[in-house]
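Example record used in the benchmark description.
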Amino acid sequence: MVGLIVKRFLQLLLLLFGISFLVFMSMHIAPGDPATIIGGPTATESDLEAIREDLGLNRPVLVQYFDYIRGVVQGDLGYSFQNNQAVAEAIMTRFPQTLKLAVASMLVAILIGVPAGIISAIKQNSWFDFSSTTVALAGISIPNFWLGAMLILVFSVQLQWLPVGGLSAPFWTIEGIKQLILPSITLGTASAAMIARMSRSTMLEVVRADYIRTARAKGAKGSVVIWVHALRNAMIPVITVIGLNFGFLLGGTIIVEQVFAINGVGRLMIDAISARDFPVVQGTVLLVATLFVVMNLIVDIIYAFIDPRISYD
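Model output (structure tokens):
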């Protein structure tokens, strides 16, 4: 296990290096000039040159990149072109909102997807199975922005049960829970659908295994067979989906944060892209990539605890 962690950590460094290079070059190749945005329409050419020199944008691109990597290794993600705020500080200020939304969305996905998939497998070809499969297909197909807009229209505008947006209240308060309901459902619906389908397919495979038939032949109760013998083995592929989806949720909050006016990392990234704020874009992308790879490593570690037969040698 220690060897696996070290190996994945080295892979993480190489992956982040490649991602940072691609993002850095993409931002510099894309049309648009940060100096023009900062200087405004009244800036003269000499003003623009002074801004570029102050930001270091007049140096060769590769020199800028290696200076950036040198700073990242030292824990310095640079400073925002817009307000001269440290990128790390800007991200850490917004990240709790994104993390809160991602965790709440993942809980919604697990609480809906796992039971729905297991019940569908137990009651295969029943009305519940067909309904669950249909709803799962719809959940994967519906775009987040449309679902969010419809939920706001129904529950916030017409019924006035829940707030329109924002996550200003602490999550442990009633108001904080109300603020989380609509965005977490919007973001967690697609993940719930995927988890439900994976739970159903893996449970169907497990309940047909020889050891399950043996347990039934020995007189074990149906509930014991399902929840004790079958569930643990069926959950291994489901954990993979949960881990990967949580990584996607952390990086996929951009649209939902825009719809519900949540000041998270996704909204920070959108604003930075619009303003050509290179350091902020690079910092947010590195954060999302790091979290995604770390989630994969955590999933592999959980595997070893669930099924000791799994070896990483």
